[in-house]
């Protein structure tokens, strides 16, 4: 009986702030990171975490260098905390039952984030003006990790999804596009082997995107080396450099469709690089989505073309 009373007292003392700080520290690996994300001072976040551990009677984290890692006792607590936060977000959204409201966090690969999602997000927000959206551009593996640890509500990735934590729905098809300035000597020559590009200059993505990885693997099967004259993190910078004659590029077809349609870039037909990938819409398998994320997931699913 006494133990039950103590449990009840413990539950009363736990606050949503403590739960939110705990979840954010687990995701960011530091109290400072959690404080910045939630909008608290580092001392207030530290006190919330300390009080949370005191009320539960367990150490939730162990320090590893400069990071805080979940302890054995903390790991099962994290899943429960995340479910509580999702349910609270849904409760808040119910204040206006006829309207979808709340914050929606999306992670996506550059080709989707830059060239597909802006229009979709604008349409969705016109239908649901109570939703506030955050869109972050990251490589596929980072997006998957972000969805898994709940930094993102949903994600769009271009790499295969092999995680028991994630649900993946085929959403769009994308292809590699070898592009050049319209006046480049190779434009208009029709199909040509990859070996014909041995002496060409290349402008490529610096980040380890799925397009860059596949391109490098396939090219090195036929060529001993690549003449890379420029690497950039920005796809827009790469396209501009190619338009200005710096060299060839290999990008997502989604990323260059508008420029090709306007005649600003031309495509080369290279059989070895005829690669189609599936862009997947992903979410966590074991955690209910907040109302805004559920609505956007359903909206995006209606526009699937895979």
From TrEMBL:
Q: Which Gene3D superfamilies match?
A: 3.40.190.290, Winged helix-like DNA-binding domain superfamily/Winged helix DNA-binding domain
Q: Which residues form the HTH lysR-type domain?
A: 14-71
Organism from which the protein derives? Sphingobium vermicomposti
- In Gene Ontology terms, what is one molecular function of this protein? DNA-binding transcription factor activity
Q: What is this protein called?
A: DNA-binding transcriptional LysR family regulator
Would you say which domain of life the source belongs to? Bacteria
Q: Record's PANTHER family?
A: HTH-TYPE TRANSCRIPTIONAL REGULATOR (PTHR30126), LYSR FAMILY TRANSCRIPTIONAL REGULATOR (PTHR30126:SF94)
**Alphabetized SUPFAM superfamilies for the sequence:** Periplasmic binding protein-like II, Winged helix' DNA-binding domain
Q: Which UniProt keyword terms apply here?
A: DNA-binding, Transcription, Transcription regulation
Instruction: Name the family.
Output: Belongs to the LysR transcriptional regulatory family.
């Amino acid at each position: 009986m006494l133990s039950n009373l103590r449990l009840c007292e413990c539950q009363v003392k736990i606050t949503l702030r403590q739960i939110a700080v705990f979840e954010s520290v687990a995701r960011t690996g530091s109290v400072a990171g959690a404080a910045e994300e939630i909008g608290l001072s580092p001392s207030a976040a530290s006190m919330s975490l300390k009080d949370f551990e005191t009320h539960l009677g367990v150490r939730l984290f162990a320090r590893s260098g400069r990071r805080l890692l979940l302890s054995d006792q903390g790991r099962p607590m994290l899943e429960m905390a995340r479910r509580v936060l999702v349910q609270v977000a849904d409760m808040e959204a119910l204040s206006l039952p006829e309207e979808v409201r709340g914050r929606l966090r999306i992670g996506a690969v550059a080709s989707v984030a830059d060239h597909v999602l802006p229009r979709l997000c604008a349409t969705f927000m016109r239908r649901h003006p109570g939703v506030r959206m955050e869109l972050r551009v990251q490589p596929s593996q980072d997006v998957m990790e972000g969805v898994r640890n709940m930094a993102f509500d949903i994600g769009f990735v271009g790499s295969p999804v092999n995680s028991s934590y994630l649900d993946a729905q085929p959403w769009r098809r994308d292809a590699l596009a070898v592009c050049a300035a319209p006046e480049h000597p190779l434009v208009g020559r029709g199909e040509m082997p990859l070996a014909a590009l041995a002496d060409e200059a290349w402008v490529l993505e610096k980040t380890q995107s799925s397009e860059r990885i596949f391109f490098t693997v396939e090219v090195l099967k036929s060529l001993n080396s690549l003449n890379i004259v420029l690497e950039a993190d920005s796809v827009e910078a790469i396209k501009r450099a190619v338009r200005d004659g710096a060299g060839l590029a290999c990008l997502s077809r989604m990323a260059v469709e508008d420029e090709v349609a306007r005649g600003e870039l031309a495509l080369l037909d290279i059989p070895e690089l005829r690669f189609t990938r599936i862009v997947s819409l992903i979410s966590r398998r074991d955690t209910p989505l907040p109302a805004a994320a559920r609505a956007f997931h359903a909206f995006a699913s209606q526009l699937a073309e895979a």
